[in-house]
């Protein structure tokens, strides 16, 4: 029984694991794009990534994020997701 343990999720960027709350959730949109799920509870298929640009870049570069969401992100969709992630992370 491990019911007392925090649920863990795998980062699609570095494949490292972490407690659910420490990872950013990205959710597939009905249009087949993806957006940051700031509530962590949005319906739809989700993927997790560490709140670090390194992990975000790795997740995007290899297509791991899109694969995990079972969608094919177009260039514009990928760009707007990266833009949103950058805002959430407060990266320059
Ligand atoms: Zn990571």
Compact description:
With 92 residues, the protein is an alpha+beta fold. The protein contains three helices and five strands; from the N terminus they run E-E-E-E-E-H-H-H. The model has no long low-confidence stretch (mean pLDDT 92).
Word description of this protein:
- There is one protein chain.
- Helices cover 33% and strands 20% of the residues.
- By secondary structure, it is an alpha+beta fold.
- α1 runs antiparallel to α3.
- The longest helix has 15 residues.
- It starts with 7 loop residues before the first strand and ends with a helix.
- It binds zinc ion.
- Zinc ion binds next to loops.
Order of helices and strands: EEEEEHHH
Count of runs of 4 or more consecutive helical residues: 3
- Might you state the CATH topology name? Hypothetical Cytosolic Protein, Chain: A
Query: Would you count the extended β strands for me?
Result: 5
- The helicity comes to 25-40%
Biggest beta-sheet profile:
3 strands, antiparallel
Bound molecules: zinc ion
Radius of gyration: 13 Å
CATH architectural type: 2-Layer Sandwich
CATH class (first level) name: Alpha Beta
> What are the segments in which pLDDT stays under 50 over at least 5 consecutive residues?
none
What coarse outline follows from CA principal-axis ratios?
A: globular
Distance between the termini: 44 Å
Structural class: alpha+beta
Numbering strands along the chain, what is their spatial order in the largest sheet? 4-3-5
| Mean pLDDT value | 92
The total tally of domains equals: 1
């Amino acid at each position: 029984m491990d019911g007392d343990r925090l649920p863990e999720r795998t980062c699609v960027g570095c494949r490292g694991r972490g407690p659910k709350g420490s990872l950013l959730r990205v959710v597939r949109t009905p249009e087949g794009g993806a957006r940051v799920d700031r509530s962590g509870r949005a319906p739809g298929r989700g993927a997790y990534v560490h709140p670090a640009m390194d992990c975000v870049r790795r997740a995007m570069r290899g297509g791991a994020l899109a694969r995990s969401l079972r969608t094919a992100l177009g260039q514009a969709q990928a760009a707007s997701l990266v833009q949103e992630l950058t805002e959430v992370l407060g990266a320059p």
